[in-house]
Amino acid sequence: MRRAGLGEGGPGNYVASGYSVYEEENEHLQEGLRAKVTALKSLSIDIGTEVKYQNKMLDDMDTDFDSTGGLLGATIGRVKQLSRGSQTKLLCYMLLFCLFVFFVLYWFIKLR
C-alpha cells in the first residue's frame, strides 16, 4: 500500500530528498519567524518603557497644574475680596498699573 509522502521502501521510510526539502524550508521559515518575534518583543518592551515615561511625565504635569490652579484660585479669591471692600479705587490703580507694565514689556520686546 502506497501513501503520499512515503517511499518505496519499508513502512515508515520517507523519501530523503522530499523530506529534507520540507524540513529545510520549515527551519528557514522558523528562523525568520523567530527573528520577527524577537523584533516584536524588543519593540513592545521599548513601547512599554516609553509609556511608563510618558505616564510619569503626565503625573508630574498634573501635579504642577494642580498646584498652579490652587495658587491661581487663592489669588482670584483675594482679588474678589479686595473688590468687595471699599478699596475699588485701589483696585483700579492696580489694574491700570498692570496694563502699563504689560504695554511697556510689549513695547520693549517689539523694539528688540
Automatic annotation (TrEMBL):
UniProt xrefs under SUPFAM superfamilies: SNARE fusion complex
TM regions (residue ranges): 90-109
Chief localization: membrane
Native species: Anoplopoma fimbria (Sablefish)
Topology within the bilayer: Single-pass type IV membrane protein; Single-pass membrane protein
Cellular component annotations (GO), alphabetically ordered: endoplasmic reticulum membrane; Golgi apparatus
This protein's UniProt keywords: Coiled coil, Endoplasmic reticulum, ER-Golgi transport, Golgi apparatus, Membrane, Phosphoprotein, Protein transport, Transmembrane, Transmembrane helix, Transport
Top-level lineage group: Eukaryota
Subunit structure: Interacts with SNARE complex members GOSR2, SEC22B and STX5. Interacts with LMAN1/ERGIC53. Interacts with STX17.
UniProt record similarity statement: Belongs to the BET1 family.
Function description: Required for vesicular transport from the ER to the Golgi complex. Functions as a SNARE involved in the docking process of ER-derived vesicles with the cis-Golgi membrane.
GO terms of biological process kind: protein transport; vesicle-mediated transport
Protein name, per record: BET1 homolog
Stored PROSITE patterns: T_SNARE
Domain T-SNARE coiled-coil homology: 20-82
Subcellular location field: Endomembrane system; Endoplasmic reticulum membrane; Golgi apparatus, cis-Golgi network membrane
Lineage of the species this protein comes from: Eukaryota, Metazoa, Chordata, Craniata, Vertebrata
NADP recorded as keyword: no
